[in-house]
Design brief:
This protein is 34% helix and 23% strand. With 292 residues, the protein is α/β, with parallel strands linked by helices. Strands 1-2-3-5-4-6-7-8-9 form a 9-stranded mixed β-sheet, sandwiched between helices. The longest helix is centred in the middle third of the chain and has 21 residues, at 112-132.
Amino acid sequence: MKHVFLFSMLAVAVTCLGVSASRADFLDDLENAAYMEAGIVYGKVGERELKLDLYHPSRGEGPFPAVVFVHGGGWRAGHRGHFSRQAMYLATRGYVSACIEYRLSGEATFPAQIQDVKCAIRWMRAKGSKNFKADTARIAVSGGSAGGHLALLAGTSAGVAEFEGTGGWPGYSSRVSCVAAFNPASEFPEEYSVVVAAFLGGSKEEVPETYRMATPATWLDKSDPPMLLLHGTDDQALPYSRSVEFVGKLKALGIASELYSAPGKGHTWYSFPPDFAPTTRAIEQFFEKYLK
């Protein structure tokens, strides 16, 4: 296991969170606040190892609330480090955060991806709690775009046996306490039918049941956890209106939900200045409300 102190991320955090480099007190505090453990194996399917990078507080007795981050990339691309800055920041604020990889569509079709996400959540309960003081009762999942879809699906599908998989940690729950999804694919846009078909193993006409099972709203019920959706109103890939509709469904069921609307923003706006800082604070405030 590679143990890495977060010196290399200090300048990024200072810039992205809008803190002057002259604030020596902030830097002194940050460099002693969090650690990163890179390349931890959280599951195994056949001979395929599934890995995550873990960011955790270096101080405090715990137990700490935990967040599992799921990268985007159309279910066919992307890297587990996409949410590393959010994860690092949350670690300095008293969270255990995992940025995970999962099997992409070129390697395996659905439900492999959600099975990997749920395996990572079980790992957090089984090993994150033991080795990194994660609180088994306070685990959230977050993701963007395709990862946002998987985060929503993880939040709505507690108890769906087909989504658990065999990656490891049987006997541990994959239920989460809340969800934060950036520009999520709450439905599957026809404009990306080829990408979606590669993910789901066929067209909607060919595998309609798979499309139904992969749609987060299919599994909605009153027991689902609180959810925060963050979406740019000018998203040309995944329309903002879909998040409006999804939040409406949550509210109709009495599920605590919030919609963070970003006027004029496109698809991956949340990862770049000037939007990284306010969106990271927004999910932190949401987690403070429902995890702490």
